[in-house]
Structure formats: structure tokens, C-alpha cells
Design goal:
This protein has one domain. Helices cover 63% and strands 0% of the residues. It is built from 19 helices and no strands. α6 runs antiparallel to α16. The longest helix is centred in the C-terminal third of the chain and has 38 residues.
Amino acid sequence: MGGPAVDTDAVRTGAVETLATRRGEVRSLTGLRLFAAAWVVVFHFEFTPGAGFVEAVKHVRAIVGVGSLGVDLFYVLSGFVIAFTYLDRMGPKLDVRLSWRFIWARVSRVWPVFAVVTNLFGLWLLAKLTLGDGDIAFQKIQPEMSFTSWLRQMFMVQMWSQPYFDGSSWVGPAWSISAEWAAYVLFPLTALVYFRLGRLPAGVLAGLAVLTVTPIAVISGVTGNPYFPYSWLVRIGVGFTSGVLVYLAIRHIPLTDRVRRAASWATVAVLAGIVAGLFVGDSMIGMREGDGEHGGMVMVLFPVLVAALALSVGRGPARLLSTNWAVHGGRISYSLYLVHIPVFEVIWTLMIRYRFIGPDTPGGVALAFAGLVSVFVAAHLLWRFVEEPARQRMRRLTDRPRVAERAATEPTAEAAAADPRPDVHAEAATPEPTPEGSPAVDVEHLVEGLAPGGAEVGPEAVRRR
């Protein structure tokens, strides 16, 4: 993953494009988010009541049954893209003003749709509580429905004092948002460390990126049960850090045809290794009581996959992930992972309550698959009418005062041409770069939408764990 030797003179003069000099989003990583989110969705869909659904996925259980790994893949992606977008600006020194703008950018991206989905689903849970409908949520530990709990949800800190994520969030999988929010809040400080680690040789950084996730991968592979007190904190810490280290390791590799070709073949090999590892892990189930996630050993390959896709730039699997439909799917993936569990839980409740649409009935099967399709439609609508409009309006609250300042500090065309790097001195009203030949897009789309991984959901959750 360290890559070939870098012609530093060519890179410095802008003769060769690298990730450090590249503007715009890495489209293949945006597209990867769609598949990671879909992995999580089908994992949770497997909990739908009825033996038919378990039977339907038994041949791909090795893959579907460990969809919880989607959250770990998203953590690596998050660290990579946050570093790609912000590290050169925030790493040299602690800047309170820049830190505030970073935090507000993250709030603008994460909070609006989170608040909408959490509050709407909270009303559903309150209705079930009022009607005395037994367990109000399909979680092993029931969430607390109180004003203080609502405040914790709205500030996205519900996980911070909890050793386990079960019952911590009204929308079960939203524990990962709270974990990610902790990484964002700490980033102005951790960026100082990450930036200085960037002085290490690329090969050392690449090795550290893999070694960082190795302990949790080994625990998962050996025990099949990588859950222990505050394991959620370990997962976000090692995943996010690994992603940052991956970026630092490969940022100066020239994106030549030779590099892209090698990276595309590496992507194929890594994907094959992940699939093989998942089937090996599945064959190990039953070795220990309570196991079931031996396939988590493949986490060690996630930083390699992200690096290979980032360097492929339109070749091999990266070409598929860079198509418009995949990129759009990646952009709505945050809304997708937030909304799919509320939709599923409503459907599961109806299936259990009404016999004519009960488990394994034609009506129940039709309703379940209609729900599976509807979560993608709902995700698009949330992104179109809540997530994006709210983000833009919230960002304008802090962007407006900088318009006059920008005119005074923006470099001249001659100065910009002399320095091909993304501008780290003056930040435009929308600081994220825009990819050439595509509509304006917020690079931050790459990092939101940590697909929920390990929340216990579904009527069979307690027995399956």
C-alpha cells in the first residue's frame, strides 16, 4: 500500500496529479458507501419475522450475516475523507475559528436528518408505549423514553457514557452516529497528531494503517464476538485512525496509468480476499458459545480496499463505483441507514399484530419486500428535501460573514496557478472542492452515513446473539 517511489519534484511542480493535489470528491469511495449501506440494510432485513427469510439467505449467510461490518468500513472511509478534506488546513496548528467552522460543517451535515428521523420514530415508540404494546423497540434492551434521553439523542451524545450500544438510541443503529460525532469533536486536537505522523515514510504509515485495525480483527476472528465494554469506542478509534493513516500513506503517489492499473487489480484481489475471509469465518461459527462474527477478521483488509479504490481512479471496480447511480446511492446512504430501521420496525410490528400479513404469509412477504424497496425511496426523499436543503441553509449561517473577507484574502489567479495544491490559506464560502465536469457537490458526502452495524434488532435478535 506504500506504492511506488514518488518523484517529489514532479509532484511539487504539479506535473503529476496525486491525491494531495487533487480537487473534488473521490467518486469511487462515494459509490462504495452505497454498497456498504446496502450490506447493512440486508443484514437487518434478515431479522424480518418468518423462517422464509432466513432460508432465502442461507447460501449467502456468510456475507449477509456479518453486515455489521459495514459500520467499520464506514469508519475507515470517514477517517480517509476527513483527512483528505481537512487535515492540511487543521493539522499545522490549533485554530479555534477553523475548528468551529469544521464542527459546524459536521453538524450541518449530520444533525438535521438525524433529528427528523429520531423525533418521528420517537413518536412511534411513544405511541407503542402508551398502548402498552409490550417491547416498544426491536432491541434487546429497550430505549429509555424520557426528556433527558431525548436531550442526549438531540445532542448526539447518547453513547458517550454507555459501555454497550444496546438500548442507547431510539433509532437503534444511531449509536454509530454518536460514536462518529465523538471523533468529529476530537478532530481539531487529533488532527495535530495525525498531521505530524504524516512525516513518517509512506511504507511505515501503510503498515500502521493495517496494524491499527488488526487487534479488533483478531478478536473478532478468534472469538466471533467482538463486543466488550466500550468496544464501540475502540471501533471508531481504530477505524477512523486507520483511514487517516491510509490517506497519509498514499497521498503523494502519482496517479499515473500504471498506478491506476495496479490499484485496480489490487482492488479485485482485496475484494476476493474479503469474500473468502467471510466464508472462512462463517465456517467457524459454533466453535464458541455466542460466536457468529468470525468474519470480522476481514476488517484488516478494509484500509487496503479504501487505498486501492482511491488510487484506481476510474479503472476496474472503481469504474463501477464511480457511475452516476452508484455515486447518488452513496450520497443518500446516510439517510438510508437512518431510515431503514424505523421502516422495518413499523413493518415488523404490523406483521406480528395482524395475521393476514403475518410471518411467511403471502401478504407478509409482499409487505416485507415492499418495505425493503421503500427504504431506498424514503432515503432519496429525505436527502432531497431534508438533508441537503438543511445543510445548505445551516452552512450559509456561517458563510455569509466571510464573503467580504474572502475578497480580501483570496489569492490572485497568478498565485493560484503557481501553487497547484488545494488552497489551505483562504477558504471559500463552500470550502469543499467541486469535481470537474460534475455538479457542485460537498465532499463531506463521503463521510456521513455510518451504516449501523451491530445494533440488536429484529424479533429474533435475542436468540441470535
